[in-house]
Structure to design on (1055 residues):
């Protein structure tokens, strides 16, 4: 029988690294950073520790990125106080910014590196692209709602995420101009994996698709293409389910 | 000049405001189903009854002031009701409540409370005039009650007449006219009459030029508003009907086919989205008659039955957007019968989208039946090679558990037994569902199928089941007979080339499962093995969700939440539990608890505040008598409503006929109460005996009634059902006015308090009926109602004895 992922042996060490990182960022931002920013940084650190690490995300590059991206700048003004809470938030037009843990988890399972070229379908506020930015080579992100695409592009530029390119368009057809991609994140699947996207995924590449309602993600589907181009999927629960099946084995 | 207010005018005013109240309640349920989700229906019904209860408490506390002002109240309250319903429509937009944020954002609780108050206020004003009439005219309580119930019955007829052609705002307009009519009937001076008449006239231009143009905004998280974000999306058609708002959306970016293989080499054609109350029904596929353009149909889990049958006669339950009809056509079905209960969808497919969809709803070998699926199965004597039941809800709604309180008479053991009866030897039933994680519906349908096969005398159900799955949907195939070796071989070949996994087939090994769409554990396979073994009972108990087969007595297929497992859920999921909750079910529990507290507050707190010297002796009898009556009436009404859905097979007609008949007949019963009121004989005793006997008859002959009624046309079924209700509902109308008359004779000041008690327990009855039915079935609900009626009969004799003593 499995139990939910809890605190693990490596946690104190990773936490120490994070504290050091926090101090480093604090020093960097130092005099220029207003006290608000320091407070947000503290809340980010708490978020990473309590919501992300405790649930099992371990990739240092992902944790670093989650620590550095100012999530409060990606949510509407009325939701700033709740920006680091453990839940999704509305960003207008019926779209949401995902729960921080889901963003971290999706980023980790794609096993990315500095050379990776990633396509994101469904830019939203740009938060996922910002988290990917320090980890990968380049992020191409496409958003169907023009208002969201424009504001996300502006926001990402202002915050200095220069390796992110935003476009307005129908993500169903992907972005063939920059294909193939090492990884694809689909945040607007709508119950259907578009075949053109599969075609734009490199062999040995991965695609992650959140499944559930428009607001609440229940599980993630990770699609892998092997070196011959054959496709398999894996269903990944964002939380561990403890089945009591009554088996006798 | 002051005009005298006759009893007849009081009755007319009460009848009209009662009609307006019940119609408004039904419309509000409709509007909330469109704007949010169905489970808010329970909240609205509860808040409406809370308004009734609170009005009683209000009068109880201020009856000295109000009692002499009945004419003013009868004039003013309908107008305030009218004003508040239109204010609500406008405020609803301003409040912009987002139920999905309720768990996390405190300000959403504030919005929710604001919205609840907005819903509550019109019912409070409406009920105020009814309750005050009881208090102010104690000698004619039964006549007031008759007007109240008959008016409510007429309100149901109004809904039945308007719901086919009018949108929600048009119905609200009709309600406004009726409410101003109530005010007019209650007016005692020329000035008041002029005001009431002027209001009635003023509503007409206001509705035509302003109100009807207020858009009905949906939650932005429903499927339709999401799809409206797509490129060049535009609503092409919008039809209000008795089963909801049907919308067709056009966008070149719209694509929908959930069970499509990842290996499908063919592109989807142009599609249009079809939505009901903003939830996805399916996609209308563009088709010009060239089968090469729909080769993708062969790459769906729903194509498997066609690999196991040759040129079958097919019955499709849930014709919807026509995808399955197209599927049958692609696979050369001999004949196709498609049952679709929403006549607006059928109309659209046969007219506006006839050419676009390749005339699939009008083809030569296709027979379209506008009926509920279970009803059609019940009355047809045809046999089919394949019966296909489709994904009946959108993924978003399925995920949020919003249908957990929906009765579904298609996914019960009895329904599947009926399907088996309608199959030719070797025929197949195919059912497709979304896979939710952790698996729930997929396991429950498997359990239901095994139960149905066993009850149809199949000794080895394991040989009659195949279940396959894609990355997000599962298809269960049940055979009327045993699968042969070549069937299994065909299934394996079919699945391998389409990257589908086989969760179960006769003789499957564990290592054959979980190949292409890998799960951490293949729980569907494990569930099938457990359900087909002697360990089934243990599996039902141990599995963290409710996956026992749904039955006609407990038809809540989408209810999975085990309240006793809540500790296990929180340990497993922690805060991430939130997306996995069955919110419909939880909302009923939350509502029941809040109302219980409010009920206590409204019933007990006013006592010390009353101007009257409170004599505590005998008050307990008043509480138990009126409380038991309120709860018993609701329990029985809901229970009969559920049962009669299986006779009428149309939720709208069923609700209208049952509720309308209950109200009108109970009104007639109240006249009997009036006649017998003067005698010493406690008329409630024979009334309760008749209620008990009728419950026994209706439930004993359930199966017989179902079979006899199925062969009758709908209008005749409605008439017969109404007549069956008469001998049950007439005696149910007797106890309440009898009790009030009893109080009027010696403790008149408690009348509004008794009304309030009755109102609150009715609210709780509504919630408890559902909660009891989910756990123990509707039979238990009926038994409890009968017991409560017996208790109330005992209490009545105590009340009468107390009266005599005083």
């Amino acid at each position: 029988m499995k139990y939910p992922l809890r605190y693990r042996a490596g946690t104190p060490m990773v936490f120490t690294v994070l504290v050091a990182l926090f101090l480093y960022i604090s020093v960097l931002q130092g005099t220029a950073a207003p006290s608000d920013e320091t407070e947000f940084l503290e809340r980010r650190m708490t978020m990473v520790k309590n919501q992300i690490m405790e649930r099992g995300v371990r990739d240092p590059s992902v944790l670093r990125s989650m620590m550095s991206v100012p999530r409060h700048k990606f949510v509407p003004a009325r939701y700033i106080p709740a920006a680091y809470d453990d839940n999704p938030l509305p960003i207008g037009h019926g779209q949401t910014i995902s729960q921080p843990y889901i963003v971290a988890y999706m980023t980790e399972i794609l096993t990315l590196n500095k050379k990776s070229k990633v396509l994101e379908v469904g830019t939203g506020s740009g938060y996922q692209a910002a988290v990917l930015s320090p980890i990968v080579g380049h992020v191409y992100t496409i958003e169907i709602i023009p208002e969201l695409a424009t504001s996300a592009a502006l926001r990402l530029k202002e915050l200095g995420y220069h390796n992110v390119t935003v476009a307005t368009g129908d993500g169903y057809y992907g972005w063939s101009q920059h294909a193939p991609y090492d990884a694809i994140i689909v945040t607007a699947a709508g119950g259907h994996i578009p075949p053109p996207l599969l075609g734009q995924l490199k062999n040995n590449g991965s695609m992650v698709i959140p499944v559930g309602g428009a607001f609440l993600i229940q599980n993630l589907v990770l699609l892998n293409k092997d070196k011959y181009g054959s496709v398999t999927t894996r269903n990944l629960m964002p939380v561990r389910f403890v089945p009591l099946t009554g088996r006798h084995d | 000049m002051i005009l005298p207010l006759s009893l007849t005018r009081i009755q007319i005013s009460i009848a009209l405001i009662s009609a307006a109240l019940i119609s408004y309640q039904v419309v509000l349920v409709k509007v909330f189903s469109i704007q949010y989700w169905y489970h808010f229906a329970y909240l609205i019904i509860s808040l409406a009854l809370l308004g009734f209860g609170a009005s009683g408490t209000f009068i109880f506390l201020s009856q000295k002031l109000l009692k002499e002002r009945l004419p003013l109240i009868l004039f003013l309250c309908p107008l305030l009701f009218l004003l508040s319903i239109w204010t609500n429509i406008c405020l609803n937009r301003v409040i912009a409540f987002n139920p999905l944020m309720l768990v996390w954002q405190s300000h959403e609780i504030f919005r929710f409370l604001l919205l609840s108050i907005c819903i509550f206020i019109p019912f409070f004003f409406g009920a105020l005039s009814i309750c005050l009439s009881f208090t102010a005219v104690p000698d004619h309580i039964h006549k007031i009650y008759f007007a109240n119930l008959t008016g409510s019955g007429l309100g149901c007829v109004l809904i039945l007449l308007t719901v086919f052609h009018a949108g929600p705002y048009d119905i609200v307009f009709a309600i406004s006219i009726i409410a101003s009519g109530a005010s007019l009937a209650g007016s005692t001076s020329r000035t008041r009459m002029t005001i009431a008449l002027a209001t009635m006239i003023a509503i007409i231009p206001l509705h035509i030029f302003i109100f009807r143009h207020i858009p009905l905004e949906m939650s932005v998280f429903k499927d339709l508003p999401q799809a409206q974000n797509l490129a060049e999306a535009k609503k092409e058609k919008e039809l209000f009907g008795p089963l909801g708002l049907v919308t067709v959306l056009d966008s070149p970016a719209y694509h929908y086919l959930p069970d499509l293989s990842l290996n499908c080499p063919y592109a989807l054609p142009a599609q249009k989205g079809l939505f009901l109350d903003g939830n996805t029904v399916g996609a209308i596929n563009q088709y010009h008659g060239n089968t090469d353009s729909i080769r993708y149909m062969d790459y769906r889990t729903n194509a498997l039955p066609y690999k196991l049958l040759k040129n079958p006669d097919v019955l499709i339950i849930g014709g919807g957007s026509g995808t399955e009809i197209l599927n049958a056509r692609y696979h050369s079905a001999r004949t196709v019968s498609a049952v679709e209960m929403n006549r607006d969808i059928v109309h659209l497919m046969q007219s506006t989208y006839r050419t676009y969809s390749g005339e699939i709803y009008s083809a030569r070998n296709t027979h379209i039946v506008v009926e509920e699926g279970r009803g059609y199965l019940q009355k047809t004597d045809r046999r089919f090679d394949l019966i296909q039941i489709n994904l009946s809800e959108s993924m978003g709604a399925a995920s949020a558990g919003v249908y957990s309180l929906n009765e579904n008479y298609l996914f019960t053991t009895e329904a599947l037994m009926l399907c088996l009866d309608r199959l030719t030897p070797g025929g197949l039933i195919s059912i497709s569902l979304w896979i939710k994680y952790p698996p729930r519906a997929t396991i429950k349908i498997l359990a239901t199928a095994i139960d149905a096969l066993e009850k149809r005398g199949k000794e080895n159900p394991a040989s009659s089941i195949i279940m396959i799955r894609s990355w997000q949907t599962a298809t269960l195939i049940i055979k009327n007979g045993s699968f042969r070796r070549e069937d299994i071989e065909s299934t394996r070949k079919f699945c391998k080339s389409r990257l589908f996994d086989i969760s179960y087939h006769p003789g499957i090994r564990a290592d054959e499962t979980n190949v292409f769409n890998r799960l951490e554990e293949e729980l569907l396979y494990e569930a099938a093995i457990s359900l087909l073994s002697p360990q089934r009972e243990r599996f039902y108990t141990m599995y963290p969700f409710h996956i026992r087969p749904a039955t006609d007595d407990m038809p809540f297929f989408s209810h999975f939440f085990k309240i006793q497992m809540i500790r296990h859920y929180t340990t497993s999921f922690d805060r991430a539990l939130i997306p996995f909750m069955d919110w419909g079910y939880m909302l009923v529990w939350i509502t029941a608890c809040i109302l219980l507290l409010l009920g206590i507050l409204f019933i007990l707190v006013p006592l010390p505040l009353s101007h009257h010297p409170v004599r505590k002796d005998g008050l307990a009898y008043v509480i138990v008598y009126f409380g038991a009556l309120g709860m018993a009436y609701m329990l029985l009404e809901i229970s009969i409503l559920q049962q009669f859905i299986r006779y009428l097979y149309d939720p709208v007609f069923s609700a209208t006929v049952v509720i309308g008949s209950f109200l009108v007949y109970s009104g007639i019963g109240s006249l009997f109460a009036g006649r017998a009121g003067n005698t010493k004989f406690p008329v409630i005793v024979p009334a309760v005996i008749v209620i008990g006997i009728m419950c026994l008859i209706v439930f004993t002959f359930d199966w017989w009634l179902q079979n006899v009624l199925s062969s009758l046309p709908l209008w005749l079924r409605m008439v017969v059902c109404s007549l069956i209700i008469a001998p049950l509902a007439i005696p149910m109308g007797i106890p309440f006015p009898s009790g009030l008359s009893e109080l009027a004779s010696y403790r008149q000041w408690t009348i509004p308090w008794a009304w309030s008690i009755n109102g609150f327990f009715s609210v709780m009855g509504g919630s408890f009926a559902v909660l009891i039915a989910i756990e123990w079935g509707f039979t238990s609900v009926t038994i409890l109602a009968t017991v409560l009626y017996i208790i109330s009969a005992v209490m009545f004799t105590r009340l009468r004895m107390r009266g005599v003593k005083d």
Q: What stands out?
A: The longest helix of chain B spans residues 106-136.
